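Board notes (copied after class):
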Amino acid sequence: MTSLDDELGIVGGSRRHSRVPGEGVAQEAALLRGEVELAIGAILDGDPAYLFHDVQALARDPEGLIYAADSGSRTVRVFDHRGKHVVSIGGRGEGPGEFSSPLLCGLAFDPDGRLWVNQTISFEIFTVGPGGVRYLESFVVRDPSTRALCGNPMFAGPTGITVPRRGPSNQGAKDEHVQVTESGEVWGRVPNVHSAPDFGVWEWPVMVIRSPTLGTNPGAFPPPFAARVLVAHAPDGGFAQVFSPVYDIRVHGPDGAQTARVQSDRLGPLVSEGEMREGYEELANTRDVLRSGGPLELVDYTDYRIPERKPVINRMWYDDDGRLWVCFWQAEADSMHRAHVYDSEGRFLHEAEWPRGIEIWRGGLSGDVAVGVRRVEFDVEQVVRLRFQPAPNPPSEP
């Protein structure tokens, strides 16, 4: 498929970047706008195949079929290019091809066209074709120190998959990427350098919990507008990472070596009075819930001061084409998501925008087409397909 980037001839020349050693400076270029061209999902009632309860992962195959992993029904549903339901994969159960985990959080096609489904406790592999769905095999990661954590989008290569592994106390960062073969053996580990001193420091509220079985243990959780290290893993096993309040992105190859770095003086938007008030209400509610009793006893809870300004970067992920998307925090009044898009070598391609409330970082994004999840009335989920095209007015300098 020819991407819109190819048609426009955007090959990164409009943004200065660098490979190590050296530094790059981010600039603006063409703006592509994503508009919804297909919506799948019923409102409250209707055919169960079109009722979504918790879509955590999405994918598209070369024929344009859309795959939606719905944790609520524990199925992966397949739709054609018009949004018509084709088939459902899996279902609740312990048998072959069924899903026992309450969370389906990754979908990927490998080079042989097989569909891999991450249900956190194991990976299930299927084929989908004219003859229907065929279950192939299941495997777990054969390493007691590694859990099959969610890492959207998920990618599968010729030797297996690459998944992130989270440590016990790293406050939002992934310790490493673990490369796993089809038999479940760990054949490679790529450590993420999230502890680099120039990433800066951040503070999260810490709660100390006493459990009858585990004793007293401290833990941290992400408060509103928290600064954190973001790590995105690439289809080839490489990764990019950034400390979210600072636009300073480090791109790494599959061996962990830094290959590019892109910087900008762009700042995050100010936290409005309404957002500040809602943030402190959220923290107070969390504290009240923890103090309400039950098997866990709240021993201590540190205060947290919501910052005056949000971090500049909210999310970061790679798409199926190996492009890196860097999505900014929104101001309260913003109606659109905005992101900078880079090629696999860290060269800037374009800026992208799409309607607020649509999550396109769950997989299935390639060329000029993305699939995403949005919530409509009554908090109902829909799966949508967007197409990115040049916007009439390019963005101004930040």
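Comment from the instructor: The chain has one domain: 4-390. Confidence is low (pLDDT under 50) at residues 1-25, 167-173.
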